[in-house]
Specification:
By secondary structure, the chain is an alpha/beta fold. The protein is built from 17 helices and 11 strands. The protein has an 11-stranded mixed β-sheet, sandwiched between helices. Helix 3 runs antiparallel to helix 4, helix 11 crosses helix 13 and helix 11 packs across helix 14.
């Protein structure tokens, strides 16, 4: 079990092709790890054991015949529970969708299925992906596998915890304002938010459609490249899906950073905790020793991006979640005859506190009286996108911390604003629609620290190449 659960996805793929073990044995190893760790971690909401073993057996037949579908054929994976999975419950960690079983797969899930990856189950998240510690889930929080008294980050905390604990070799998540990168940093794994439109959003339950993107959680940058290659590409079901051809992401990934130009965002140093700042500067020194040039760059409106993100994201969430009214689908309050009371009771009981908070904020900023605040947020978004694009016309990537701090104790942050601050460094790439990756680099008292690289639009190949160099230089 330990051998399989400690492997990377590509490492397991090579072992499967050498017939050193079977896909069924790999799936069983991850399932056994779940039995061992899930009572403490609660990374999964649904485990599809029988279906996973059937998929693994099918992969073994292909491998025995010398007909693997892809480098991911037979590799066990997990999927965040806000991505639709045909015949497997998809709850968004909310009572509102507690019994929902989709009749179709999300496009990203479907592509991985066609690549032969083995779905183990659905991972926990903050309700409707709204949160930063996987603590707003209606079905209980997820713990950090490194120290279960601490949070795993969020909202894709279940995906990050599952990969870090060896309960899956890679996972899908979603990233609206950092929800893949921040938990990846807190759990010591790699988290990629691709360029907006690079991976289809079809089948992803919407939070903020202009910000949402399917993201990847893996053990290293090479695995990230392999999973991106399997999921990226145009999808006619998603109007925001890009027609730009995906790259050969694994080609040249180990070529290093010699000759690359990077910019350290100056304002991030002042906002990060000392241990995070120390590791970020150590990463800068390592990049320079590997032949990259690293300058400092000012993004003076960095702190303004966080409130702008919450205004825009909450406004979109308010509109998106209006469909959950107890009439058409979703949770329906019982014992209510009046239709107005039915809607009130269904939404009051079906949604948790954080979701209701963001619906109220979004509804408020969309009122006529608050239209100016919404327009200011939109203007700042445009300014952010243009400023970062201008910087990246010269630099190959920007450097920031992923999180201002390491994983905190569960219950330590009771103020919502303090919780929101943990997304300070990840929202700029989300607002600008740019690709960004978090790579573990160093630690503080055994807790991992993540370094974030932000790249050019559709520049994931170069971004992952730089991430690979950072990753290999962390020792």
């Amino acid at each position: 079990m330990d051998k399989v659960c400690g492997m990377t996805a590509l490492g397991l793929s090579a072992a499967l092709r050498r017939r050193e073990l079977s896909a069924r044995e790999a799936a069983l190893a991850c399932l056994a790890r779940m039995e061992e760790r899930e009572p403490q971690l609660h990374a999964y909401l649904t485990v599809s054991r029988d279906e996973a073993l059937a998929e693994a057996d099918a992969a073994d037949r292909r491998l025995a015949a010398g007909e693997p579908l892809s480098p991911l054929d037979g590799v066990p994976m997990a999927v965040k529970d806000n991505l639709c999975t045909k015949g497997v419950r998809t709850t968004c960690a909310s009572r509102m969708l507690e019994g929902f079983v989709p009749p179709y797969d999300a496009e990203a899930v479907s592509r991985l299925g066609r690549a032969g990856a083995v779905l183990l189950g659905k991972t926990n998240l903050d309700e409707f992906a709204m949160g930063s510690d996987t603590g707003t889930s209606a079905f209980g929080p997820t713990a950090n596998p490194i120290d279960p008294s601490r949070v795993p980050g969020g909202s894709s905390g279940g995906s990050a915890a599952a990969v870090a604990a060896g309960e899956a070799l890679f996972a899908l998540g979603s990233d609206t304002g950092g929800s893949v990168r921040q938990p990846a940093a807190l759990c010591g794994v790699v988290g990629l938010r691709p360029t907006y439109g690079r991976i289809s959003r079809y089948g992803l339950v919407g939070f903020g459609p202009s910000l949402d993107q399917v993201g990847l959680v893996t053990k290293d940058a090479r695995d990230c490249a392999a999973v991106l290659a399997a999921t990226a590409g145009f999808d006619p079901h998603d109007a925001t899906s890009s027609r730009q051809s995906p790259g050969a992401y694994l080609d040249g990934i180990g070529d290093g950073v010699r000759g690359m130009r990077a910019a350290l965002v100056r304002e991030s140093l002042a906002e990060a905790e000392p241990c995070v700042r120390r590791e970020l500067l150590r990463a800068v020194a390592k990049l320079e020793s590997l032949g990259a040039r690293v300058d400092e760059l000012s993004l003076p409106f960095l702190k303004d991006m966080l409130p702008a993100y919450h205004i825009l994201g909450s406004a979109e969430a308010s509109s998106n979640l209006a469909r959950f009214d107890g009439v058409r689908y979703g949770f329906r309050a019982s014992g209510v005859s009046d239709w107005r009371q039915l809607i009130r009771e269904s939404r009051s009981r079906g949604f948790g506190l954080e979701v209701k908070r963001r619906i109220l904020l979004g509804t408020f900023v969309l009122t006529k009286e608050q239209r100016d605040a919404y327009e200011k947020a939109r203007r700042l978004r445009r300014k952010t996108a243009s400023s970062m694009a201008a910087a990246l016309s010269y630099y190959d990537f920007l450097l920031l911390p992923t999180s201002p701090e390491v994983a905190w104790k569960r219950g330590e942050k009771r103020d919502p604003v303090a919780m929101y601050r943990s997304d300070l460094f990840v929202v700029p790439a989300s607002i600008a629609g740019l690709p960004a990756v978090s790579v573990p680099f160093g630690e503080e008292n055994g807790l991992p620290v993540g370094v974030q690289l932000v790249g050019r639009a559709f520049g994931e190949r170069e971004l992952l190449r730089a991430a690979c160099a950072v990753e290999e230089g962390r020792a």
